[in-house]
Amino acid sequence: MKSLVINCIAIFLVSNLFKGIYVSSYATMFLIAIVLTLLNATIKPVLKFLSFPVNLLSFGLFSLVINALVLQMAFVIAGGSYISSFGSCLLASILISIVNSIFSTDKKK
Length: 109
Known about the structure:
- The protein is mainly α.
- It is built from five helices and two strands.
- The two termini are 23 Å apart.
């Protein structure tokens, strides 16, 4: 549930910061957050496992491409929104990763 809220906040930020990303309504934004959360839990680990050799050779930078592909899949599955280019998708996935890492850290002392 926490990751769903964080993804929704991140998609809201991304859609307002980048002109190449369009989300038609708040309901669509919430649907994209649901789909993105489900894809991150199911498809993303499989893609990371299959691309391990390439990821190893690129020192982990191929993970950015995987994140962008998962984000693109979420936008395609949800409908009512679009990302204009893969570059916009890559930048958006970096920003979403940053927002996720900021909000999902547990502040235990």
